[in-house]
Write a structure and sequence with these properties.
This protein is mostly helical. The chain is 48% helix and 4% strand.
Length: 143
């Protein structure tokens, strides 16, 4: 939103339950973070949905127009939200930041993470591609 010039980040204090307050739940019944509220009051949550909305409506250069290129960007973002997040964040970052106990074999989890990131690089950045969409930054890089 900031890069598109359509908004700023607003702190939502989870530790104080700001995401559970009635005014927040009225905008997002699932009380997820992040939440984007557009200038017309339209609200959407989930980072990938927010990125797609902003790119589609405000920065189309960040979301390819051809079906195949768009599919690759979508695939990369969905992969980051699920498969990669489950390994990178949950099994590596969370223990490092003490959000969770370390796994029984941290070295094995680190190696699995590196393997997964190497596969991501091979799938999306092969052939000297600088970004998922080739030489152009896309919303996948924001993810």
């Amino acid at each position: 939103a900031m890069d598109a010039g359509i908004g700023n980040m607003e702190f939502c204090n989870l530790m104080e339950g700001a995401h559970l307050k009635p005014e927040y739940v009225a905008k997002n019944a699932f009380h997820q973070i992040p939440l984007f509220e557009d200038s017309d009051g339209f609200c959407v949550a989930e980072s990938t949905a927010i990125l797609r909305h902003i790119a589609t409506n405000y920065m189309p250069s960040l979301y390819p127009s051809t079906p195949q290129a768009k599919a690759m960007v979508d695939w990369a973002m969905d992969l980051m939200s699920g498969t990669i997040y489950d390994v990178l964040a949950v099994k590596v970052f969370y223990p490092v930041f003490e959000f969770a106990a370390p796994p029984a074999d941290q070295a094995a989890e680190n190696a699995a993470c590196l393997d997964l990131l190497a596969k991501y690089e091979q799938a999306f950045l092969a052939g000297g591609k600088k970004f998922v969409a080739g030489n152009n930054i896309s919303i996948a890089e924001y993810k």
